[in-house]
Amino acid sequence: QQIELGGYEHFMLKEIMEQPESLRNCFRGRLDHREGRVVLGGLSKYTRDLVRAKRFIVTAQGTAYHAGLIGEYLLEDLAKVPARAAYASEFRYRNPIIEDASVILAISQSGETADTLAALREARERGALALGVVNQVGSTISRETDAGVYLHVGPEIGVASTKAFVGQVAVLTLIALYVGRRKFLAADVLAHYIDQLEKLPDHIQTVLKQSDHIRDCVEKVVDRDNWLFLGRGYNYPVALEGALKLKEISYIHAEGMPAAEMKHGPIALIDEGMPVVFIAPRGSQYDKVISNIEEVKARGGRIIAVATEGDEEINRYADFVFRVPDVPEPLQPLVTVVPLQLLAYHGAVLRGQDVDKPRNLAKSVTVE
Ligand code: AGP
């Protein structure tokens, strides 16, 4: 085990730190810069069906579901195809309507999650084309799909999923670009995305350098038992993921939600010193997020902001700032989630928890 840990104290930290490398592996052979194409060999047989698809249903559980929610945004934004993410456990029992030309896209690190498998089977029986976005090669889900794209991020051992999430979001981005380019996305726009995607491993490396800074900040608030995570647009699912990471390994109660939703009830929770994490990179909804931050600040909340490098304005509001490089909005989750993984990791260690073996949890949930 010591050898596998490669000098890290926990698998979770190792897997967070190796994300630049695992993302490079995920992209290998898939970003064709010269020809300006995204290459997804696993989908090539079904390209026409994907271009003609009228609807994508993205199904998963837990962290993979959060990736799926980002997939919903990506598919609508970049491929202009109606998409919705659904918890597999809910989807399978709701007597789902599968219209013609539907695609079910199952996301799973292990490829063995019982509910995700059942949802996939249900939709496939009702006529959907079944795609998998899976890490574990040869797993049940990967065998039961018509086609798919492996993550190739390497085995994930830590119970808290980190590098698999980044791999899932990266693959969903590639799928959205693959379909989008064949529909309407201009060659130069795709070329720009390919350029930006190639830079992501280095960007993540830059974020990882803040690990000590993040630990020092977390130390000042880690005694608090209730946290909120807020974001908008592409960063709303990142808020959900940040909250899940914190809960599952540190046992701190945390809720994630769209920042605007706060005013519809949860704002009542905010009292002096409550940590509120805002995922607030520069982008189309930045000003709205700032006004949400002001509201929390006025009520005494302690603001932890994930913000773009060079954004000085945020310093006026935030007690602690974690920086991410400036990337196009659809790619933001791939960098904004990283400080939240480190936040959860350090929070759990500071609270003395067993990060790799959180209580009551198994790496994959193979029973309902
Ligand atoms: C997250 O950290 C958890 N390990 C959990 O939510 C996980 O993502 C979920 O159980 C789905 O697992 P899968 O990706 O193997 O299907």
From TrEMBL:
Question: In which broad location class does this protein mainly occur, judging by the first location in its UniProt entry?
Answer: cytoplasm
Q: Which GO terms describe its molecular function?
A: glutamine-fructose-6-phosphate transaminase (isomerizing) activity
Active-site positions, per UniProt? K363
Q: Where in the cell is it found?
A: Cytoplasm
Keywords (alphabetical) are: Aminotransferase, Cytoplasm, Glutamine amidotransferase, Repeat, Transferase
Tell me the ranges covered by the SIS domain, including all copies.
46-185, 217-358
Quote the catalytic activity from the record: D-fructose 6-phosphate + L-glutamine = D-glucosamine 6-phosphate + L-glutamate
Q: What is its EC number?
A: 2.6.1.16
Fill in the subunit field for this protein: Homodimer.
Instruction: Name the job this protein performs.
Output: Catalyzes the first step in hexosamine metabolism, converting fructose-6P into glucosamine-6P using glutamine as a nitrogen source.
Entry protein name: Glutamine--fructose-6-phosphate aminotransferase [isomerizing]
Protein species of origin: Natronomicrosphaera hydrolytica
Name of the encoding gene: glmS
Which residues of the complete protein appear here?
A: 267 to 634 of 634
